[in-house]
Amino acid sequence: MAVQMVKCGRLKSPRCKKRTVFLLKIVCFVVFVFAFCEFLIYYAVIAQCSWPVVKLAVQGDRKESASVLKAMFLSDTHLLGEITGHWFDKLRREWQMERSFQSAVWLLQPDIVFILGDVFDEGKWSFPEAWEDDVRRFHKMFRHPAHIELVVLVGNHDIGFHYETNLYKLHRFEKVFNFSSAKIISRKGVNFVLVNSVALEGDGCLMCKATEETLIHLSRMLNCSRKSDQNHLGKECSNVEQTPASAPILLQHFPLYRRSDSECTGEDSATLEEKAVLFKEKYDALSQEASQKLLWWLRPRLILSGHTHSACEVLHNKMVPEISVPSFSWRNRNNPSFIMASLTTTDFTLAKCFLPVEDTVIYMYIVAGALLLVLTMVCCLTLLFPIGQLVNKHKQI
């Protein structure tokens, strides 16, 4: 056998050439399938998404001069930790999210990206070493150019539900992500109110009390800024910091109170079994009291939240829409997605961008594997029983 291999290598017979060409084709085929399923597919799918068009307000004979803010909203990444996360599951899910995020940022070029909580899966109980490792992996996965801003909100998996959290967990999250229990950020005249919804228990705890006091202060800021006549604001607004005169967009992890997801529709809404389950206040959604306080204090024009892992659209007080953003992780959904928003000071338009469906990737691997097996068998039969030899033998007979 060794002599035949050396002879084959030296003489470069047609049979050996065919075998070499076939092996090269197999390698190219495998590399292409792997590269497409693990890299190119994210660009191919996300490239089909585009920013929604928002109407600009007309002021007299001129359109609103303020530029449009392009914002991305995603939620519930749930980076696996060292306790419950299997190494392959962790590797697979983080690669999927990293490629999706990097592809979306490169193709869509948003101005700002918001992650609506539950960044980590085990932040509520992870030790300092595990926490540092989770943070390191997060920064690697969600790296972004300097001109794109990334804002991260806190969720119950990051610091725990109200009954299991403490100031240590809250402060270490705040330190890493520059997040406070409630604050306003304004970009291109658009106001966003970021809220730690875990702190809206309403029981007077230290964290809850501080958050409510901050929200009342933010409410005064927004109300004073909305007053058209700045020369007659009154004493209550004389020493209040001003924000752009725009109704805010409320961002938080927990959704406002609703009975269930039974009224939610769409291909990425909850399953029929999940829709039949009633929500538990302060666990699946905020309490009715906390929800009404937020609506009354802030008077938002739009609300975006996460937590449920499924899509939903709810109208509060018959005028304020709330969008539940589905999970960004394939561990929680077969069809993850994120929200794209074109925002101005007076209007907004939303669109949803779906990521590759995991079943599609699996089917592609199965089909490619079956095709590879068939081609290998055909080639092996051809090499073992060359057609030319069979024809020559037939002629000799």
From TrEMBL:
InterPro entries, A to Z: Calcineurin-like_PHP (IPR004843), Metallo-depent_PP-like (IPR029052), MPP_MPPE1 (IPR039541), PGAP5/Cdc1/Ted1 (IPR033308)
Keyword Hydrolase: yes
Domain Calcineurin-like phosphoesterase: 70-310
Membrane spanning residue stretches: 21-45, 362-385
CDD domains (alphabetical): MPP_MPPE1 (cd08165)
Signal peptide, first to last residue: none
Gene Ontology CC terms, in alphabetical order: endomembrane system; endoplasmic reticulum-Golgi intermediate compartment membrane
GO molecular function per UniProt: metal ion binding; phosphoric diester hydrolase activity
Biological process (GO), any one: GPI anchor biosynthetic process
Keyword Cytoplasm: no
Family as reported in the entry's similarity comment: Belongs to the metallophosphoesterase superfamily. MPPE1 family.
Function: Metallophosphoesterase that catalyzes the removal of a side-chain ethanolamine-phosphate (EtNP) from the second mannose of the GPI-anchor protein intermediate. Participates in the glycan remodeling steps of GPI-anchor maturation to allow an efficient transport of GPI-anchor proteins from the endoplasmic reticulum to the Golgi.
Name of the protein: Metallophosphoesterase 1
Organism this protein belongs to: Microcaecilia unicolor
Organism ancestry: Eukaryota, Metazoa, Chordata, Craniata, Vertebrata
